[in-house]
């Protein structure tokens, strides 16, 4: 199932960093617990605290709400995965808007006054 993010145009800069973290397959996760070997003479190692994922702060909507907003002309959907992935498959009506454009602060082609719903999978 595709994840949908509800954004205002001003939040796209923040989205760039969040999506870079969430969509990147190269970045290793640092939230995995390390194996701990407990012995009678040594105290147990502290449990690692998971880091806050910036994506957790992004508003999310379900597919039905996204479709409703797009159908009402209140929102547009952008596919930030990249042109090659977009050509293979995408949400009907979604714009091909690669993450690199957002990271480069290039928001040309995005409508003003509408919600921007971005997705990556």
What does this structure look like?
It is a single chain. The chain is of the alpha/beta class. The chain is built from four helices and four strands. Strands 1-4-2-3 form a four-stranded mixed sheet, covered by helices on one side. It is extended, with a radius of gyration of 19 Å. The N and C termini lie close together (8 Å).
What keywords describe this structure?
four-stranded mixed β-sheet, 121 residues, 4 helices, disordered N terminus, single chain, alpha/beta, 12% strand, extended, 26% helix
Distance between the termini: 8 Å
Query: What strand line-up does the widest sheet have?
Result: 1-4-2-3
Mean pLDDT: 73
The rounded Rg comes to 19 Å
Order of helices and strands: EHHEHEHE
Assembly annotation? single chain
**How would you sum up the major sheet?**
4 strands, mixed
SSE arrangement:
Layout: E1 5-7, H1 12-23, H2 63-71, E2 75-79, H3 83-88, E3 95-96, H4 99-103, E4 115-119
Parallel strand pairs: 2-3, 2-4
Antiparallel strand pairs: 1-4
Briefly say what this structure is.
This protein is of the alpha/beta class. It is built from 4 helices and 4 strands. Residues 1-21 and 24-39 have low confidence and may be disordered.
